[in-house]
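Translate sequence into structure tokens.
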Amino acid sequence: MDVLQLDISGRPQAWISPREAAVLYASDAVAWTLGDTFHVLRGGTQRTTGLQSRIEVHPIVAVRGAVPSRAWRQAPALSNPKLFVRDRQVCAYCGGHFHLDDLTREHIVPVSRGGHDTWMNCITACRACNGHKGNRLPEEARMTLMYMPYVPSLHEDMILRGRRIVADQMDFLLASVPRSSRLHG
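Result follows.
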């Protein structure tokens, strides 16, 4: 299970391992935490007290002095796994729900016709619909979109990365995801 690292103002920065989080705790870089302890790291025994050192890691840590994320000023990176999760594995043309192996990245305006490989020009399509549309615009192929594309927010992008997310992390991230997002459905 990974830890959600935030900057001190609460903006997501990265998914880090519990060991990376322990380094932040040990260097007193953690400003605040959220959620119940979900991982405990144990160290050596102190000679003077005989006590074993331990660091309790929380699922969400805000880091002091962290550089504000540049991701707030640009769109998240587009990848097929994130696109398919954004679109809930539903073909934008026929509305069918498909296994990941049966899905493709479909460009609404084909790249060969001036379209770009961006969140706003890409949707999820099944192989059959993508093949039927081919190098045409949806109108030319007499196909209509069942939903519109959108650019995910940074909070959505952290969810779309496909990690195992504990309830505390999901609650935190979803609180900042627009209500219109398909991630709420």
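Note: The mean pLDDT is 90.
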